[in-house]
Amino acid sequence: MARTDAVPAPSAAAPAAPPANAGARATLSALAWNYSAAVAGALLQLCYTGFTARVVAPREFGAYAAAAAALTVFGYVAGAGLSTYLLRAEVLTRGLVRTAYRAAFASGALCFVATMLFAPTAATLWGMPEIEPVVQLFGCYFLTQPASLVATAGLRRMGRARAAALAETGAQFAGMAAGAVLLTAGWSPYGLVAASCLTPTVTLLVAAPLMARCVLPTGDRVTIPAVLGVSGAFALYGILQMVTMDAALWAVARHLGPDAAGQFSRALLAVSLPASLLAQALRRAVMPAMAEVNGGGGSLRGVPTDVLNLGSALGCVSFGVLAGVGQPALRLLLGPGWGAAGILVTVFAVCWPLMLLCQLGYAVDEVAKELLVLFRVQLLVLAATSVLLTAAVAGTGSLVLTAAASPLAAGVGHVAQLVRWRRVGLCAPATLVRPYLVHAALGTALGVAGWVGVHSIDAGAELRLLTGLLAMVPVGLAAYAVRRWIPVYEAAVARGLVRR
Fold first, then answer.
1. Among 293, 360, 384, 414, which is least packed by CB within 10 angstroms?
2. 26 by DSSP, 3-state: which?
3. CB 237 within 8 A of CB 378
4. Is the pLDDT at 228 greater than 70, yes or no?
5. Model's pTM, two decimal places?
């Protein structure tokens, strides 16, 4: 597969080939640290969400969510695709990292200025005048966010997933603590924005010194245009991706009002926590390992099968649990007044494994540097999303159908990925039929058992949640008993990662 990296590699001897399973074990170690940090971050976010749901009204949270979504494009312009570029870099040099920092600070400053100018337009676009000052405050986020992504991506590319994970988790806690103080003092929804702005600042202050201590080859001089030539394409692709993701929230806010947007965004946030935990941790763990293979002249043939096997297992099980007990869990977390969000959580959870699989497919094509393929698939998903959202919002005004639109469109994109991989010999879709079916059956069994347990009693949210979780225990025990026939377990044994 042809490679078109614009950044020259350093003049150094090629390292010795690692053992056959070294890459798998390194990936597993990185995955463990990424997931540990993600779980800790998710728990922090759950506590913070429960607190903010009681001090921030749905309308105010809708304004915050609308402001954040309005600046999605600026976020990708500010980051300029630098995180993805560093994660997939075949050789990381000191000159490349320095250039990435310079590009990050420059693009962040430009986006800060652009945000100040864009705020009135955003208020008009969303039909919500109250979000103008919220958007302007959000501009501070871009001053440090791009550079923090460079620091943590560099640490992960150097195999220091633990340091990156701890830096991000600690910064998340600091931001939430500051936000909670401001919200308690009555600064709603500005306390939410302050928490978002402080998190990347703390991340940068912790991760940048750690990255500076890493031993890197000097390498050739790398210019900003050379880096942006590739990372900018990833940024543009990321903008398309996030426009697709935010289209549903924009449609709800524009056509159904801020109250509906608040309910919708709360449900989306509840699902985004495990979704981000799964997708980001998997991507960050497998992309450096795939970049090593690609950079050493190896073939990525068969890699999509392994990645999607693992992703389908984790996604179906996690979202199956969420589908079963999501309603009482969200009621317990948010308190009264969020009934519609509980229903939407179940809908999101049922459909979201399709979104996860498509995201993992993007990661494979990113490492393979198939930029045109990425754009084609993303444009297909955007088109499918537009059609489904038009039918849901303009046709029926149903929040349930609106929630299903984006993940179903991602499923269309994933089918396109599989068709292409079969054509180029990268993956045989037939080998994924059994893993998808078995893992989907396991997730369905967990979801149905949890749903039956939740609705078997007429009690408070706490007891219904406990009953739903207990109802899933027999399914979990049965899965453990037949684990030798579960595809993800078979794959782990075959690669020496688990003893039979």
1. 293
2. helix
3. yes
4. no
5. 0.65
